[in-house]
Amino acid sequence: MVGLHKSEFKNPLVRWIDTRLPVFTMMQNEYGSFPTPRNFNYFWNFGALAMVAMMIMIITGIFLAMNYVPNTALAFDSVERIMRDVNYGWLIRYVHMNGASMFFVVVYIHIFRGLYYGSYKTPRELLWMLGVVILLLMMMTAFMGYVLPWGQMSYWGATVITNLFSAFPIVGKSIVTWLWGGFSVDNPTLNRFFSLHYLLPFVIVAVVFLHVAALHITGSNNPLGIEPKGPQDTLPFHPYYTVKDSVGICVFLIVYAALVFFAPNFLGNPDNYIPANPMVTPAEIVPEWYLLPYYAILRSVPNKLGGVLMMFGSILVLFVLPWLDTSPVRSARFRPIFRQLVLLLVIDVIVLGDVGAHRPEGWWVVVGRLATTYYFLFFLVLLPVVGKLERPLKLPDSISKPVLGGGGPLPGGAPAKPMEKA
Amino acid sequence: MRRVGDGPFPHEWLLAGGAESAAAACGHVWSVATRRNQPRPGFEDMMATSLSASDHGAGSPHGEGTSKRDFLKLVTGAAALVGTGAIVWPLIDSMNPSQDVLALGSIEVNLDPIQAGMGITVLWRGKPIFVRHRTEKEIKEAEDVSLSALSDPETDAARIKAGHAQWIVVVGICTHLGCVPLGNKPSDPRGEWGGWFCPCHGSQYDTSGRVRHGPAPANLPVPPYAFETDTKIKIG
Q1: Helices of type H across A263-362
Q2: CA–CA separation, A373 vs A352, rounded Å?
């Protein structure tokens, strides 16, 4: 494996570098000529969009940290100073604040795409699991970021979430004290949350790198869920998907900008503009919208430890999803029963989010319990069973056939192979 | 670690021949397929033309399609550049002094308690400002110097406000390497010229704050200030 790389680049400087460190060849192979299934729909934009959202969050975050003070006496005022006195501070903070929501929207759609088109199935299990790790890291990062402004919701959100760990028998109390660095959420807690909120995004970047590296080994899934059989089934990533992603990025930025400039506090909670007060709990404590479904699951279980376990379980179950789904067919297009069930799951999660935003009283409790039940039923029972019982529709012979019509043997292409499942 | 280009990359498994680059192969197939199945002229033809041209390593193709594409590339690039600039500028500007810092940019100093021969030091924008009440003798010394004797020639009149010759206001930072010179208190060493003496490298300033002895290259700068009344100035 020793030896200079034989570069194909003509530019002498590029060639000089590429011979010694073939980054240009790598970029060309992975983002230039990288063969990508030709039948992507716009759902395949969301990975790139998540990447953009992540970069926006990191850049704005770095600039916010230049003016933020992680001290209980100064944090709230330093955020207000950013809003009022720092040049464009309001813009940077609103971009960061709403960026969290945009990041989660994009990632949730990305996850739905993976579920619907079976992107988690072999050989992409590890790719999927790395994605779940990213989701977990994102949730931790978002939660700790929400604590930093040190408003009422920050304080009480931190109190409630850290107290979740007190549900564990014997060690629970000690864990919570350890998390706090004291006997309540206080200055040590705020300091460590700031430190970790700055660290975790870079951990996310590292896992995203692995996620993308794994993707470039297996190649992308596609709406048909069948593997490309030759060059007639693929397109070079550039310019086809760089352009298609750019279209998506434009739409994404338009929505994002509309949120930032016209309704920057639409997704936030007004109580967080009241400075933290350890003596008064706000009437309604709700997490940010992207955490509401888990919050609903937590509250649907009439047992402290049970609720906590179910909540963590709702994410952890995603790790074993590739083995829970027993069907070899990837795309829901060819799985009539699974298709209904997975769309119902989407509605179910939205309902859970709605339940999470309401006080657990009256029929909200019932709805919450039903929705929680379906969530786990889907993953733990329906997926394994339906995979065995369902009769999938006939898969197309190749990707190019439905796309280009006729199909048949194409010049320079591999001869069509017999139908291949999964 | 596998070296890039050694293969086998996944796309090389997919390629029948394995030797051709995926781009060339795909482009070729795309152009053939497009011509056969999608007889519509325009965009597809343009793509096909450009791809087959690049297949053969030729320069950019000629004709209408090229100028349209060039135009689109130019407009897209320009829009992206303007957009990037529009978001990069707020980030850069956020590192400039904020409004609360600028609000502290001016201070008022009451001159009443300063006796002749005394000076005080006030903080303005994080820097020490010397405000000194000069005696008649000191004023005369400052005025009588010939400009040729100065390494940074400047008349005393240019460094004070007319009618307020007894007051000299300078930024108290040595122009050599940024130390704060001594000399505001009568008990401080004031150097040979009776102004200020920098303890770091021995620079000396006269009673007008002008440098008279090395290594400092320039006079102590006069900050922007104005007399609000005879006994009150506003710096900044």
Answers
A1: 292-300, 304-319, 321-324, 336-356
A2: 11
Measured from the Cβ of residue B27, the count of other Cβ atoms closer than 10 Å reads: 23
CB within 8 Å: A219 and B32: no
A262 and A310 fall within a common domain: no
In our burial notation (b when 16+ CB lie closer than 10 A, e otherwise), range B14-25 reads bbeeeebbbbbb
- What sections of B6-148 are H helices per DSSP? 10-14, 22-37, 43-55, 64-93, 99-103, 136-144
Please report which residue ranges of A72-186 form alpha helices under DSSP H: 75-84, 89-116, 125-147, 152-163, 172-180
User: A328 and A229, same structural domain?
Assistant: no
The encoded tokens of residue A364 equal 């909200």
Annotated catalytic residue within A227, A233, A288, A348: A288
pLDDT, one tens digit per residue, over B17-75 is 333 344 444 444 444 444 444 444 444 444 444 444 444 444 444 555 578 888 988 99
Residues B151 and B53 in one domain: no
Q: What percent of chain A has pLDDT over 90?
A: 85
Which of B129, B113, B109 is closest to B184 using CA atoms? B129
- Separation between Cα atoms, residue A218 and residue A204, nearest integer Å: 21
Q: N- to C-terminal Cα distance for chain B?
A: 62
Nearest to A26 among B4, B29, B94 (CB): B4
A66 to chain B, any CB pair closer than 8 A? The answer is yes
Which member of A35, A59, A91 has the closest CB to residue B14?
A35
Residues of the domain holding A47: 9-266
Whether ipTM > 0.90 holds is no
- Is the Cβ pair A405, B37 closer than 8 Å? yes
User: Domain range holding B55?
Assistant: 10-93
